Amino acid sequence: MMPTRVCIVGAGPSGLYVAKALKRYIQGVKIDFFEKLDQPLGLLKFGVAPDRQSLRQTGQKLVQDDFRFFYNVTVGKDIQIPTLLKDYNFCVISCGAESPVSLKIPGDDTLGVFDSLDFIRWYNGYKYIDTSGSVKRYFNRLATLGRPTTACVIGNGNVALDVSRILLAPEESLLDTPKTLINDISAANICKVNVLGRRDWIYSKFTNSELRHLLNSPSLLSVVDPSVNIQDSTNRILQRKGDIYKSMQGNWGSEKNKILQFHFSTTAEKIHEEEGQVARLDVKKRETVHFTSIPCDLLIKCIGYTHNEIAKELEKYIDNKRVFSSGWFKSEGKGDLSATIRESVELAKLIAGSSH
């Protein structure tokens, strides 16, 4: 009997976890990866914050000897899905989503407004798309202001927390980061980060473990305005999250050199510039009609990603019979690693059922 052959488009976390699960559910399965870069791991290498090295080590363990990797191959450009299906029983498209989503507000193109991937790639030394230079130049520009600066991070998921944490991180926590980059972040003198989410705290996608890590951080103070109504919940996970936010409310009014403030039910309405760069952000609470203007020397968007033109073409082949999608390609940049692992296992079971 011929072994089941599966090709996976993208050798990032989703594809690797699908492959791991397929080995468990399909005996003798043969798995090949087609990866546009010259190395595997994707976001496990270029999307993990420098103070989360254990995640990168986890990724290395997923690259198994019996997988075959074809690098520098862009599926949809160098080779097409119908061609792959001639040699493989199934195809899993897990090449992520990396086109930024616009805020669609005035000033979105102002100097000093970046997508989270630009910033993340900069601090992880991503060499494949040249956005690092513009981020570095802007941080050098912030250093010339000669005063404490404020950043705004828009988004209510763990990516927003990673970005915020790195902006406020002490040098000793960035052990796997080039010294020049540490110097750039330090010289920008960011002393406060405002994290803005358009929905209520109940719907924030931060994991409790990440919030707890922030709450217990000796290097920064996490705060929530005491006026925010943190209700009790019968859901155990939500109750714990609410308790963490209540502890952050208890920090209100305390002083520390580095502050991270969470703003819920808050939408960004307009970006203002002064002297050629972002200076202020108009925001509006959901229950009001009035705008509030807050200082903003740097704005980073963590609001998800969408597909580029090649990925949009790949979508057309998904039939959930022989061609499947997974990870951020499926969710368009939403979901944390734990969700990716769960969904990868479920997809592997589905494919295993179809292979009989």
Enumerate the spans where pLDDT stays under 50 for 5 or more consecutive residues.
Answer: none
What is the β-strand count?
16
Helix and strand pattern: EHEHHEHEEEHHEHHEHEHEEEEEEHEHH
Query: Which range best describes the helical content: under 10%, 10-25%, 25-40%, 40-55%, 55-70% or over 70%?
Result: 25-40%
Number of helices: 13
Under CATH, the homologous superfamily of the largest domain reads FAD/NAD(P)-binding domain
CATH topology of the largest domain: FAD/NAD(P)-binding domain
* Overall radius of gyration: 22 Å
Count of domains: 2
> What's the level 1 CATH class of the largest domain?
Alpha Beta
The SS-based structural class is alpha/beta
Spatially, the strands of the biggest sheet line up as: 6-14-7-8-10-9
Q: Which descriptor suits the 3D outline?
A: globular
Mean pLDDT: 92
Distance separating the two termini = 12 Å
Looking at how many chains there are and whether they match, the oligomeric state comes to: single chain
Largest sheet report: 6 strands, parallel
CATH architecture of the largest domain: 3-Layer(bba) Sandwich
Estimate what percentage of residues fall within beta strands: 15-25%
Protein name: FAD/NAD(P)-binding domain-containing protein
Organism: Theileria equi strain WA
Keywords: FAD, Flavoprotein, NADP, Oxidoreductase
GO molecular function: oxidoreductase activity
